[in-house]
Amino acid sequence: MESRRRQGHGEALLKAAIQKCRTRNIHRISLHVDPLRIPAMGLYKKLGFQVDSLIKCYYSGDRDANRMYLDFASN
């Protein structure tokens, strides 16, 4: 799996999903991500997502999650 990382596939898919949302007049996308997943957090921030809040014990094993969002009105 490591050999498939850092090739831009995830970014391309996310950009396509964002564009699809824009064409369908969706105003906000939100997601949850483990704050320890630094590469994922970086990708979301690079594409304009902002951290909204921390959700305690979101994942099993008492792991937290960041709730992130992308508002199209501000882009």
Automatic annotation (TrEMBL):
In this protein, which residues make up the domain named N-acetyltransferase? Answer: 1-73
In alphabetical order, the GO MF annotations are: acyltransferase activity, transferring groups other than amino-acyl groups
Protein name (database record)? N-acetyltransferase domain-containing protein
High-level lineage = Eukaryota, Viridiplantae, Streptophyta, Embryophyta, Tracheophyta
**Which species does this protein come from?**
Gossypium tomentosum
Task: Identify one Pfam family in the record.
Answer: Acetyltransf_1
Highest taxon, organism lineage: Eukaryota
* Alphabetized Gene3D superfamilies for the sequence: 3.40.630.30
List the SUPFAM superfamilies: Acyl-CoA N-acyltransferases (Nat)
